[in-house]
Amino acid sequence: MRNLAKGLVALAVALVAAAPLMAQTTGRIEGRIVDASGGVLPGATVIVTSPSLAGSRTAVTDAAGRFRMPGLPAGTYRVKAELAGFTTVEHADIRVGLDSTAGVDVTLKPASVSETLTVTGEAPVIDVTSTTTGASFTSDLFTTIPVARTFQGMAFAAPGVVQGGLGTNPSVGGASAAENRYILDGLDTTDGRFGTIGTALPFEFIQEVEVKTGGYQAEYGGAMGGVLNVLTKSGSNDFHGDTFLYYTDDSLGGSSPATATVGQDKGISKQYDFGIGVGGPLVKDKLWYYAAVNPTYTDRDFTTRQNLPITREARSILYSAKLTAQLNPNHRIVGSAFGDPKGELNNAPATRDSAGILVQNSKTKTYNYQLMYDGILSPNVFLELAAGRAQIDDSEVPGANVAWYEDRTTTRRFASPQNCGDNSLLIGATPPRFSPGCVGGTFVQENGNTARNELRGALSFFAKTGSLSHSFKVGTSYRQVKYTDWGHYPAPQGGVFRDSTGAIVDPDGIAGQRYTLRNGSYTLIEYDQNSKGETDELAFYVQDQVKIGDRITLNLGLRFDSTESTGERSSEFPDRKLEFGFGDQIAPRLGVIIDVVGNGKSKLYGHYGKFYESVPLDINVRAFGKEQFNFYYFYYPAGGSLPTLQNPGTHYYTYALGAGTGVDTNIKAPYSEEWVAGFDYEIARNWSAGIKYINRSLGNVVEDISVDGGHTYFITNPGGLYASNPVTGEALEDPVDFPLAERNYRALEFQISKAFSNNWTMTASYVNSKNEGNYGGLFRQDNGQLDPNITSLFDLPSLLDGAYGLLNNDTTHQFKLYGSYQWPFKLITGINARYLSGTPISKLGAHTVYGRRERFITPRGSEGRTDSLSGLDLHLSYPINVGQRSKLQLIADVFNVTNSDSPLTVDQEWTTRGATSTTDPNECGGTDPGCPNANVNYGKALTYQDPFNVRFGVKFSW
């Protein structure tokens, strides 16, 4: 199939069939020209100009007086309409956003002499052709409000977007934080391994950020959450640029409170963030350039719970470069490159619930390249083609200190920390010293590289059938994603592993071991991985935007995806791969929009969509590769003394994993479904208000499960009764019943916005939502596991007891407000405020087979909520004119003005007692001082919101 897919795509591109993602870099202007009585004016000439456009574009109205301008670079435009015998009219300040349509209707009045009337302040604020929900942020906006300086930081201001427990990866519409797509300049830069952010860029490089939270059309695939669509800056006919410097340190902020479990996050101790970006013409109206670089240095301080210090050091050199060639006003070629060739993170705490320090040093380098073409082939035909590559080179090694002590036991406690010794438990020249709860060994990622090569093309054409007008778009795309995963636990360097009798336990002696000491017993874990995986994705789609009269628009789309995911052992074991054809992944996207008032300022709309998952490649290398994962269980030596090299105790059980996992022959492709209904209205000039209802649910889910207690696994769509083991074919003594995987998100959103005018802009939103089920998604937020499609949750039926309930990212109330105002004395003030209700708390215990925090003692999310979260950030900037074309800005961003310290997450482990289910009504835990398995920190904060901090900046622009 792989070679066939490549051949089909090459043929499709050669024949100029088309593909998704191209519209993500451009927008459109369309409208109608009429006379004073409302009569249509065919043959009128419409000319658009913009600093974002080399030269001008021209169109002529059709028999219905309509015109359209596709493929316009995002920016601000002037639209001029002229016809002999009529006054020429110009509309100024028409904003064209990414993948959006600006509607401009022009009325021409008879004129006896040549004259031009300029209309300002009439830019449309509602796109009456789209059902897409979310928010758009231009460079003029996000440089005047206080947010983190990377594009994904802006996403959290959009309604329905919350923290998802995975850093700066947002949770959108109830989905996990690993279910979004990140599109930069039309290139899919999503990390192919895990479905997370692949590349970050600062605001200075960016022209616009569009956050699609739902309702998007068939050209967008792979996301079950949201789409972050980003356009970087381009050159123009004018030489322009800026240089900037931002700085903060610990004297400009506070610290979060210390926690009993993991110590303290003391915040940024020092941060330098500086750079320069320049753009201009190489050949006026023909060839533009833009180039920028932004080194960043950030140190953040932590302490362990025993007050031992850690300083995490992050280093980056972000860059962006773009060449724009305008062959003539109707044909354009754009080449772009961006990424971070440094990407270092040193002394990152692997854990802080310790008396010692366990840190990791990593390098994540990103390289992205793309070449795009778009052209107007005729007044009714528009062509787009692109080829690109997104690459991540990743490695990770332990820091200098690789041992720590955890006070997990009940009978052995030490007043001072005990060193675990070296990293080898049973192999080594020197017997290590041990403490109960001691964990030895950490992780080495020799190579975690991934790359996505993609080809895309899109063909749009416009036609009429009777009284209906059509905007057709057809397309195809091909993506080839490759991932190499070479990693292991460090220390023993080879040899065999022997038990206390001297018998060989593991003849291969795989590289890398980790041990965990508990009260009376301990576990040795071996892990070794050196595998490659590949996924080939081919997609076709067709969509038609049908206009029925002046008030009704239908968006009709259908998307077909074909996927093959393989690993190194797929050829040896034919069932170790995922393969879904076009007939398995048919995704309709259907929308209707009604301009109920008929003035282009209102829309009543509805949308239905099916969204198939683009399965990350973690499953390729783990389930279909050569991963080895072995657990060896030991009792302490006689008398209860701690184990040593010479006296390791008694080996009593071996639990071998990593033999690979087969796939159910009847498996179906994973997807989610969405229904959206809403109404938007322009309530006054530059003001709009809207209300919408969103209903999202999971369809098929792909996960690994076991019907024999974890001895064999297979990948399937969970749900149903098993009377025999599909792996071995053996009949089960007791049939095993798995529930269906469920996630249901319901939300009601309200929003009111004011476009920038009279020196100010503002957007406020309120969301009331509920997110419940037994499956959070590709990222398992309750235990922090990022193993898409092979998380532990569905491995055993007993792990699902009590698993249905409110999910971790359920946030009942969300209120957000952002905006800016420029005072008469030039000072610019910006605000970013939010209030979010707390998230659900569960009561977790240990599972006999799977360990700590894997068992739901009471129904998920039923133990109350964390405290509500509020925050207020302020932006201040003062521009100083330097000559006629240059400006110096003095900047201050104040984050968490009130220094709120609400917990973001709390410790949900109630007991360390192991069981397969909760059958003992007298089970104890929590703060019970007499309970031997209690976690006295249950319900206490693990992390807090970032404390008060001031960031100063200076920027010089020309």
- Percent helix among the residues? under 10%
Mean pLDDT rating: 86
Enumerate the spans where pLDDT stays under 50 for 5 or more consecutive residues: 1-23, 401-440, 491-512
- Separation, N- and C-terminal Cα atoms: 53 Å
Sheet of most strands? 30 strands, antiparallel
Q: Supply the helix-strand structural class.
A: mainly beta
Shape: globular
The counted number of beta strands is 60
Measured on Cα atoms, how large is the radius of gyration? 30 Å
Helical stretch tally: 4
Beta-strand portion reads: over 45%
In short:
3% of the residues lie in helices and 54% in strands. It has four helices and 60 strands.
Tags for this entry?
958 residues, mainly beta, 54% strand, 5-stranded mixed sheet, 4 helices, 30-stranded antiparallel sheet, Immunoglobulin-like
3D structure, described in words:
With 958 residues, this protein is an all-beta fold. Among the domains are: 2-124, Carboxypeptidase-like, regulatory domain (Immunoglobulin-like, Sandwich), CATH 2.60.40.1120; 238-371, no CATH class; 436-685, no CATH class. It has 4 helices and 60 strands. It is globular. Mean pLDDT is 86; it is low at 1-23, 401-440 and 491-512.
